[in-house]
């Protein structure tokens, strides 16, 4: 049985796409953390941020990760800020491998520029803003990662093959 795979990285790097491919082609369970939290809370991530604040949202992520640590053969598409908390990284390491997906800021901008479901980018949609936020998060992503996979100009199958070769 394959261990859990936790996909981390900035918004728009392809975590959800890769997670769905792994689910469909390798018979893994899938948890989209943001979707799970929205379902549990009965409101969108943007609403949670606006009504309860980022800290409340981050605590929901931690609580969810602690329950996911009990799962097996599950691919988890993590929110972009998950690795910022050491307790989140510890929970992920407890039951699987952490895969950092990365892409160039320009590529991410092209992927997310029309999205209005990313509260941290709302009103700041630019390559410069994305690049600056990525630079702030990069040390935490690299520190957490067991494996790093660039997603620029690769098919989802190429990305998943690279991931599975590294975690097997």
How would you sum up this structure, described in words?
The chain is 55% helix and 14% strand. The protein has 168 residues and is of the alpha/beta class. It has a five-stranded parallel sheet with strand order 2-3-1-4-5, with helices on both faces. Helix 1 crosses helix 8 (156-167) and helix 3 packs across helix 4 (54-68).
Beta-strand level of the residues, as a percent range? 5-15%
Class by alpha and beta content: alpha/beta
Helix content: 40-55%
Low-pLDDT regions: none
Q: How far apart lie the N and C ends?
A: 10 Å
Largest sheet: 5 strands, parallel
Give the ordered list of helices and strands.
EHEHHHEHEHHEH
Neighbour order of strands in the largest sheet = 2-3-1-4-5
Shape: globular
Number of DSSP E strands: 5
Summed up, the helix count is 8
Computed CA radius of gyration, to the nearest angstrom: 15 Å
What's the rounded overall pLDDT mean?
88
What is the topology?
Blueprint: E1 4-8, H1 15-26, E2 29-32, H2 33-41, H3 45-52, H4 54-68, E3 74-77, H5 86-95, E4 96-102, H6 105-112, H7 127-144, E5 147-150, H8 156-167
Parallel strand pairs: 1-3, 1-4, 2-3, 4-5
Helix pairs in contact: 1-8, 3-4, 4-5, 6-7
In short:
This protein is of the alpha/beta class.
Descriptive labels:
5 strands; five-stranded parallel β-sheet; 168 residues; 8 helices; alpha/beta
């Amino acid at each position: 049985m394959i261990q859990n795979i936790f996909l981390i990285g900035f918004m728009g790097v392809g975590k959800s796409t890769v997670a769905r491919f792994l689910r469909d082609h390798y018979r893994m369970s899938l948890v989209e953390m943001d979707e799970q939290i929205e379902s549990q809370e009965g409101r969108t991530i943007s609403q949670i941020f606006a009504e309860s604040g980022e800290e409340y949202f981050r605590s929901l992520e931690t609580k969810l990760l602690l329950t996911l640590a009990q799962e097996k053969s599950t691919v988890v598409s993590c929110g972009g800020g998950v690795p910022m908390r050491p307790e989140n990284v510890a929970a992920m390491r407890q039951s699987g491998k952490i895969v950092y997906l990365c892409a160039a800021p320009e590529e991410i901008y092209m992927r997310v520029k029309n999205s209005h479901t990313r509260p941290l980018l709302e009103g700041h949609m630019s390559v410069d803003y994305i690049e600056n936020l990525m630079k702030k998060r990069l040390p935490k992503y690299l520190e957490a990662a067991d494996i790093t996979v660039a997603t620029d100009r690769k098919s989802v199958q190429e990305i998943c093959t690279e991931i599975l070769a590294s975690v097997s």
